[in-house]
C-alpha cells in the first residue's frame, strides 16, 4: 500500500510542481497551500487517518486531475498539453500510462461488471457527467450508467 501511495503521490507532486511554476495565477494561488505527498504521510498515525484513507483520497484527487486534463485537451487549453509535455520531459514517461487512462479504467469496470468503491464511482461520475461524451460508445455509456446507479442504490441501503 505504501509503494502505491508513493507512486501516486509522485504523480500528484508533479502536477503540483507544474501548477505552481506554470499554472494560471488562480491555480497557483489555489495550490500554494496544498501539501505534498510526503507531508500528507505525516498525518498517518494512530488516531489519525489510516494509510488506506490517504491512498483513496490520493486516487480521488488524481481522478479529478485526470478529468481537468481531459477537459483541457477537449477545450484546447494550452495548460493541458503543457502539463503532459512537462510530465514527459520530467519523467520520460507518458502521464496516462502512469496515472491511468480514465476511459480504459471505465472499460475495466464494465468488464468486471461492478464498481468496487467510491473512487471508481467518482471516476465514472467524471466520465458520465459531460453530455458531449464521445470516448465511450452509447452502449458502454448505458451500461456504465446502470452500474453507477446500482452502486448508488447499494450505498443508500
From TrEMBL:
The lineage of its organism: Bacteria, Pseudomonadati, Pseudomonadota, Alphaproteobacteria, Rhodobacterales. It comes from the Bacteria. This is Uncharacterized protein.
Amino acid at each position: 500500500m505504501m509503494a502505491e501511495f508513493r507512486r501516486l503521490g509522485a504523480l500528484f507532486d508533479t502536477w503540483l510542481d507544474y501548477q505552481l511554476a506554470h499554472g494560471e495565477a488562480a491555480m497557483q494561488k489555489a495550490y500554494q497551500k496544498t501539501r505534498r505527498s510526503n507531508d500528507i504521510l505525516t498525518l498517518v498515525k494512530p488516531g489519525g487517518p489510516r494509510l488506506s484513507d490517504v491512498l483513496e483520497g490520493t486516487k480521488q484527487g488524481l481522478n479529478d486531475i485526470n478529468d481537468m486534463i481531459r477537459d483541457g485537451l477537449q477545450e484546447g487549453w494550452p495548460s493541458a498539453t503543457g502539463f503532459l509535455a512537462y510530465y514527459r520531459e520530467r519523467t520520460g514517461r507518458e502521464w496516462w500510462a502512469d496515472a491511468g487512462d480514465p476511459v480504459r479504467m471505465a472499460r475495466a469496470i464494465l468488464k468486471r461488471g461492478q464498481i468496487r468503491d467510491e473512487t471508481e464511482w467518482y471516476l465514472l461520475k467524471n466520465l458520465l457527467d459531460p453530455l458531449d461524451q464521445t470516448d465511450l460508445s452509447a452502449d458502454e455509456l448505458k451500461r456504465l450508467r446502470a452500474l453507477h446507479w446500482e452502486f448508488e442504490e447499494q450505498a443508500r441501503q
